[in-house]
Amino acid sequence: MANFLQLYELLPQFIRRADFDQTFHTVLTTLGTPVVAGAVQVVTPADITNIKTHMKLTVEPELSNQETVEVLSVAGATFTAFFNLAHPGIAVLTDAAMPPLQALLSAAQTQGNLVYGDILQLWKNFYVETCQDWILPYIADLIALNLIDDDPANNRREVARTIAYRRRKGTVPQLETMAYDVTGYSTRVVEFFERMLWNQCLFHFKMNDLHTVDVRDAGALARIGHAFDRTSHTADLRPSTQMQGWHNIRKLGFFFWRLQAIPLRQVEAQPAPAPAPAGAYHFNVLGQPEPLFQFTDPPEHGADKDWPRATELTVMSPISRRVFLETPNAFFGTSEGFTIYVDGVPVALTPLPADLCSWTVAGHQAGQLAVDVRLGRFLFHPADVPAAGKVVTADYSFGFSGNVGGGGYSRQKNLRPQEGEPADVVHVSKGGAVTTISAALAQLAVSVAPLRVVQIDDSRSYQENLTLPANFDTLVIQAADGQRPLIVLSNAAKVFSGPTAGIELILSGLLITGAGQTLTIPTGVKSVLFQDCTVDPGGGRAADGVSSRPAQVDIQVAAPATAACIRVDHSIIGPLTLPQDMNCLAISDSIADASAFPGGNILQAGPPCTVLRSTLLGGFECHSLEASLSILTGLTTALFRQQGCVRFCYFAPGSLVPRRYECAPSTPPPGFTSLLFGDPGYTQLALDCQDLAVPGNCAGSPIVYGESGREMGVWSSLGNVRRLNHLRLRLNEYLPAGLVPVFLFES
After folding, report:
1. How far apart are CA 402 and CA 680, in angstroms?
2. Structure confidence by residue, pLDDT tens digits, 14-44
3. Model confidence over 196-214: pLDDT tens digits?
4. Domain boundaries, the chain
5. Cβ atoms of residues 717 and 227 within 8 Å
6. Do the Cβ atoms of 148 and 159 come closer than 8 Å?
7. What pLDDT is stored for residue 302 in this prediction?
8. CA distance 640 to 69
9. What is the distance in angstroms between the CA of the first residue and the CA of the last residue of the chain?
10. Rounded Cα–Cα distance for residues 278 and 379 (Å)
11. Which of 282, 288, 277 is nearest to 340 (CA)?
């Protein structure tokens, strides 16, 4: 909208005949026109031009040289004019009277901005790409589309492409694109009848239809049984499941990749421990085996463009060793794959696909960097090993079911300060003015702002003692958007020291680790929030890929903690040691894992607790319990069972909890893709876990035992079952007659 002076110019300009007083004479004198005190001054066209130019005002062109202009104010070297409606003479507005006028015009400008913004939004609402969410059902009604999802992002994609869908109805590219738009999964559609053995027709040869497998084609052999299988198969008349009944004339396969690729940038690579050779590194900063994922954006599907098919390079999946062997440059040094740096400079080496299970590579030459994408390892040749003191970092993507724990995903909505929120912010990075978190906290110790923020702008490692300010209202230690810094605890670096008098402490976007260490919250802090954090619980595969990692970090609140509260949101944590005089423990959309600790108990004799959409792997004992859509695999005990309610949950046999509402039976227990911390499928419900399914779900769907058709546990908010049900409804309209869809999951 117009600024102050522009808005001022929009006010009515009144031109009237009047006598001049000494004030206007002074104005004309300033402009270089001689005046006679007390006399009526005739304003010439040149004077009017000077006034117009200096005051940046538009004066009526028919103004004659016998007409005069009323001037209100001269403020410094800038003229502002407002024409008096009440008096025909000169009205003088002094500098002291300017603030009220500015306040008046500021209020007018605020309202003008609202009107202008509303006009802009009305224009945006004409287009599905920019309209407000509540407009989508009305646009959908114009094209006779019934929306079935409650996710605005999915609805927006579907409404935008419905016309294009109908023009390409029933084609494989259309079905692939629609499946992605409805489910959000990378999708590959396969016509299984094209992969069946055929008797060749003399008029229609199928050159790729070989009745026997070419055992010399390693690429084809590696892809058998997957979405990009190139071999031919005999007819399979069995009912369709995840493992059988695919190849038949009527079957149309939908292959889905449910895991997401979460990017990390400039993460310190972890040197491999002995007996690995010098120059051996793990991509994972904790030294765990971790497959690399390819991070890809879905291809553009314009209304007037050819719609490309999904390929091995465009789906969000683990990078296959075979595909990396065939096209290493599609991943090495690219944003879709990975990049390795030495002191911030990308390495100028040739990628060598390798199996680094034993850290040995046959034929490894100088100038080559051996990379194992399945284990997340890389090895420099002895001639290329970085010198001592050089920092090796990497850009890569890891796989996980969703945005839980520390990661490089977007967290902009959770960052502080929010727009218009007063705060003192100190930025920390290894290459910045402030290089340590402790130095940033020392600066904020003298601040009196109600909100104090330490923002870490890189994904490097920090090992130091952190002293909280003696007094604070809200203190935030957060990672910048897209970053995941590592805080290492050790006997010499205990986070945090106290006591202190703080109202709220927020930890956001951090990865905290340290073998056998305790993260202690000092006494005096009233509220602690772990948001988008990973407090390493230990367990999972160790660096050798065979043994298990030891227990890592547990969380302890120092006593006394009267009226204190711990909140855990979209985070991964280990065991908790909490005083009973605390007010509450609230866990939502999170994972708590105590499987690596002796006894395997997450909480013992804890305060009143609320658990929402979370997965707890271990015993849990609290004062009272409220729970919903959660999985608690260990023995759960609530001391006061007359209080609270648990709904749509799973509890281990023998658990003593408040009254249950629509909870799953205790046996059999749910199955998981993996219970090893660090695996991409960590806490993801297994596909064959059907014992808790509500009636009507077909084989191959994840378990569901909750309201609105949602599965239980930490991934409840993903709505996996709902997405597949919505796709089935859409296929009723777009699937060619006679074909039967088969839903298959690659991850």
Report:
1. 10
2. 222 233 334 444 444 544 555 444 444 444 5
3. 887 777 777 776 666 778 8
4. 4-102, 260-400, 412-640+648-654
5. no
6. no
7. 59
8. 83
9. 50
10. 8
11. 282
- Cis omega before residue 499 (within 30°)? yes
Closest CA to 588 of 398, 716, 435: 716
CB 61 within 8 A of CB 41: no
Contact criterion met (CB below 8 Å) for 307 and 298: no
| Residue indicated by tokens 């409606």 | 85
Give dist(CA 282, CA 288) in Å, integer. 7
Q: What are phi and psi of 540, to 5 degrees?
A: 80, 180
Neighbours of 214 (CB within 10 A): 12
Q: Which residues pair with 700 in a beta bridge?
A: none
Determine the length of the chain: 747
Kindly give the interhelix angle for 152-167 and 172-183, rounded to the nearest 10 degrees.
170
Q: Which residue has the tokens 């009723």?
A: 732
From CA 660, how far away is CA 628, in angstroms rounded? 10
**Residue 545 region by backbone torsions, left for phi larger than 0, else alpha for psi between -120 and 50, else beta:** left
Q: Which residue has the tokens 């203190």?
A: 475
Decide: 646 and 660 in contact? Cβ < 8 Å: yes
Q: CA angle at residue 162 from 159 to 165, to 5 degrees?
A: 150
Q: d(Cα 81, Cα 84) in Å, to the nearest integer?
A: 9
Token pair of 485, please?
A: 């810094």
How many CB atoms are located within 10 Å of the residue 601 CB? 18
In this structure, are residues 244 and 234 in contact, taking their beta carbons and an 8 Å threshold? Answer: no
DSSP helix/strand/coil, 347: coil
Whether 459 and 344 have beta carbons less than 8 Å apart is answered as no
Query: In the structure encoding, which two tokens stand for residue 682, read together?
Result: 């960590």
For 613-636, how does the pLDDT look when each residue is reduced to its tens digit (9 = 90+)?
Answer: 999 999 999 999 999 999 999 999
Rg (CA), the chain: 34
Percent of the chain whose predicted confidence (pLDDT) is above 70: 80
Residue 51 phi/psi, 5-degree rounding, is -65, -45
At 26, list the tokens: 């002074």
In 363-430, DSSP assigns E strands to: 368-372, 377-380, 392-400, 424-428
Kindly state the tokens that stand for 263: 């990017």
So what's the pLDDT on residue 709?
64
Tokens matching residue 231? 């071999």
Distance of CA 490 to the CA centre of its chain: 30
Query: Residue 13 is encoded by which pair of tokens?
Result: 């300009």
Enumerate the β-bridge partners of residue 502: 472, 525
Strands, sheet with 251-257, edge to edge from the N-terminal-most edge strand: 186-191, 251-257, 740-745
Q: And the tokens for 577?
A: 């040691």
> Which residues neighbour 154 within 8 Å (Cβ) at sequence distance 6 or greater?
181, 182, 184
Q: What is the C-alpha separation between 295 and 315, in angstroms, rounded?
A: 8
Identify the burial level of 527 via C-beta atoms within 10 angstroms of its C-beta, where 0-12 means exposed, 13-18 middle and 19 or more buried: middle
Is 716 in a helix, a strand, or coil?
helix
Alpha carbons 565 and 114: distance in angstroms, whole number: 40
Nearest of 447, 455, 467, 469 to residue 414 by alpha carbon: 455
Exposure letters 494-521 (e unless 16+ CB within 10 A, then b): ebbebebebebbbbbbbbbbbeebebbb
For the chain, give percent helix, strand, coil, nearest 5: 20, 25, 55
Query: What CA–CA distance (Å, rounded) separates 452 from 478?
Result: 11
The pLDDT of residue 281 is 94
> In the numeric block, which tokens belong to residue 291?
């497959």
- Residue 267's nearest CA partner among 287, 253, 247, 295 is 287
